[in-house]
UniProtKB/TrEMBL annotation:
Residue ranges occupied by any ABC transporter domain in the UniProt entry: 3-235
Phosphoprotein is among the record's keywords: no
GO MF term list: ATP binding
InterPro entries (UniProt xref): AAA+_ATPase, ABC_transporter-like_ATP-bd, ABC_transporter-like_CS, ABC_transporter_ATP-bind, P-loop_NTPase
PANTHER family in the cross-refs: ALIPHATIC SULFONATES IMPORT ATP-BINDING PROTEIN SSUB, TAURINE IMPORT ATP-BINDING PROTEIN-RELATED
CDD domains in UniProt: ABC_NrtD_SsuB_transporters (cd03293)
Record's keyword terms, sorted: ATP-binding, Nucleotide-binding, Transport
Name this polypeptide is given: ABC transporter ATP-binding protein
Length: 262
C-alpha cells in the first residue's frame, strides 16, 4: 500500500500553552512493498511521525495519505510494533499473537496454525503455550514480531523494536525480519537508532534533523536481496553506514565553522 506525508508538521502544546514544534514540512513518498528506515537524533519527532502515519496522532499541518486517502483514524490493517513489546502477561504467547483477531472481533481458531508457523519461523515454536514473563527480552520481541505480522498487514510501522536487545540477538532478528517482510510484500516504515540495521533492512534510509524534525537526506540503499548476514561483509554496506553516520553527525545544523577564516 502506498504511503505519503505531504507537508506534514506537528506542534505540541504543553499544559501551560508553550508550543513544541516536533515536525516541520515532512514530504515523504513510500511505494508499495518498500522498506524505509528512518534515522534521526533523539527527540527529533520520529515516533511522532510514525504515530501520525499510523493514524494514532494528528498532524497540525499537512497530511498523511495512505492508499490515496487522508489518514483520519487509526489504520486497522496496519501492524505496529514499539520498543516495549507490550505483550499481555496473563495470556500465552500464542494468545498474545491471536489478540490481533480478538481485538477486531474475529474468530481466532482459523489463525492458530499461522501463529504457530510464525513462531517457528523465529525459532520459538516451543514457546506457544508459555507466558511472556517466562521469556527473555529477545524472545519476547520475537513474539511481538509475530503479533505484528500475523494478520498479514499491508503496512508495518516499527518504532525502534530492537532497541533494548543485545547486538547478536538484534542481528538475528534483523535477518528474520528481512525474510518475513520480503515474503509478505508489506510496506514498512522502520524507525531506528541503529545505522547498521537501517542499511541492512532498508530499501531507503531517511535521515531527520534535530527538532523540529525535517528530512535532511533520503538515501537509496542499493544492496542485493534477499538480505542475509553476508550483506554486512560487502564494502558497499560499510560505505552506506559511513555516509549515514556522517549525515547524522552533521544533524542538519548549519556548519558554524563555515565562514570562519583561519
Ligand atoms: N504528547 C506530547 N506532548 C508534548 N510534547 C511531545 C509529546 N510527544 C512528543 N513530544 C515532544 O516532541 C518531540 C519529538 O518527540 P518524539 O517523536 O518522541 O521523538 P523521537 O521519537 O525522535 O525521539 C520531543 O521534543 C518530545 O518531547
Ligand atoms: Mg521515539
Amino acid at each position: 500500500m502506498p504511503l505519503r506525508a505531504e507537508g506534514l508538521g506537528k506542534t505540541f502544546r504543553s499544559a501551560r500553552g508553550a508550543a513544541v514544534r516536533a515536525l516541520d514540512g515532512i514530504d515523504l513518498s513510500i511505494a508499495p512493498g518498500e522498506f524505509v528506515s528512518i534515522l534521526g537524533p533523539s527527540g527529533c519527532g520520529k515516533s511522532t511521525l510514525l504515530a501520525i502515519l499510523a493514524g494514532l496522532d494528528k498532524a497540525t499541518q499537512g497530511a498523511a495519505v495512505v492508499g490515496g486517502k487522508p489518514v483520519t483514524a487509526p489504520l486497522v490493517d496496519a501492524g505496529v510494533m514499539f520498543q516495549r513489546d507490550l505483550l499481555l502477561d496473563w495470556h500465552t504467547c500464542e494468545d498474545n499473537i491471536l489478540m490481533q483477531f480478538k481485538m477486531r472481533g474475529q474468530p481466532t481458531a482459523p489463525h492458530r496454525d499461522r501463529a504457530r508457523e510464525l513462531l517457528a519461523l523465529v525459532g520459538m515454536e516451543s514457546a506457544a503455550q508459555r507466558y511472556p514473563r517466562e521469556l527473555s527480552g529477545g524472545m519476547r520481541q520475537r513474539v511481538a514480531i509475530c503479533r505484528a505480522l500475523v494478520h498479514e498487514p499491508p503496512l508495518l510501522f516499527l518504532d525502534e523494536p530492537f532497541g533494548a536487545l543485545d547486538a547478536l540477538t538484534r542481528e538475528n532478528l534483523n535477518t528474520e525480519l528481512a525474510a518475513l517482510t520480503a515474503h509478505s510484500g508489506a510496506t514498512v516504515v522502520f524507525v531506528t537508532h541503529g545505522i547498521d540495521e537501517a542499511v541492512f533492512l532498508g530499501d531507503r534510509a531517511v535521515v531527520m534533523s534535530a527538532r523540529p524534525g525535517r528530512i535532511i537526506a533520503d538515501v537509496r540503499i542499493d544492496l542485493p536481496h534477499p538480505r542475509g548476514a553476508h550483506i554486512r561483509e560487502l564494502p558497499e554496506f560499510t560505505a552506506y553506514t559511513a555516509r549515514l553516520r556522517k549525515l547524522l553527525a552533521h544533524d542538519g545544523r548549519p556548519d558554524h565553522r563555515e565562514g570562519v577564516r583561519p
